[in-house]
Amino acid sequence: MNLLVLKAGQRRIECAYFADTNAAPERTAFTQNLRETQDDDSALRGALRKIHLECRLAMNSEPDGIAVCAPFGGAGFERSVIVDAEVLGKLRTVIPQAPFHTPLLLRLLQACGEIFSGVPVTLSFQTAFFAKLPLRERLYAVEPDLCAGLGGQRTGYQGLFHEAACEQVSAARRKSGVQEPARTLSICLEPQPEVAGVFGRQPVMVSSGASSLEGIPGETTCGLVDPSLVLILAETLKCGPERINQMLTQESGLRGLLDKPATLPDVFEDGDADCERARRIIEYRILQACGAGIAALGGLDAIVFSGRYASLGEKLGPWLCEKLRLNNWQTCSLSLARIVAAKSALLLQTSKNGQAVGS
After folding, report:
1. What does 303-334 look like in DSSP terms, one character per residue?
2. pTM of the predicted structure, to 2 decimals
């Protein structure tokens, strides 16, 4: 099955072409400098037309399906779906909860329907894995009416990685003859790292919050901070919401600690004093999140690393196992594009066979 995988950001679209979801993509690419507004989608449509042309050249045909990775689906989407009018309607209700991501996603889906006419489109949500988090983990101790309809509950934002990684753990245990669900710490090493405590395939804890800002510091994001800090910034620096958002999402994390752009591999591989300090902070925050996960799970059987920097597990794994007194860690090296392509292929095939739709 020929599949085109798309992931849209505010400024670029990433794409990958798959002729076989069990193999590497035929080609990966991205388009940059998307600066479209609500009133002008010309850059977005131009990028998709270019992708459409390259897709036809790579596959010698139209794709059998388009698999779109969605960052947020809210409580209404617990699994991957095939896009139709009902799905689009549900997505529009999510706009207040994800005002930066959802409008762009809707415009991308509309453009896909026009440029790839007749090609089915699937959506795989990063948040779907966490749709059934326990109430004790989801709820904040604030007035519920203030959060109604605004997504004011904790969720995770790397669910596709966590789901694939925990399935790998379960498969390895079954192969060794162990049938009981594993108590797993799933550590996703993306530019915004995330730790989840997972019992079998059910998450019971996650380090992120109502947004991905909460939790572990990222490459440019602050991680968990005292909420009063936002009030202090607003009062002392006379900052408005836009400036504070820029500071916490683009100028913090490793960039703030080092006062220069940096990636996770930079701080784990560079031996200078500043990188060493930043590495120790990130390690400690991951260790704290792991402690919360173990407490929620009531114990620990396995640690698994995933994400684009999963190979850093070779450095973090032994250190964490020593701290947590465990000797069972592994890495899941699947790319996000391949995870999304596999889910889409299964969903489209299931639909084609007339079975219940959902993956």
Report:
1. EEEESTTGGGHHHHHHHHHHHHT---EEE---
2. 0.93
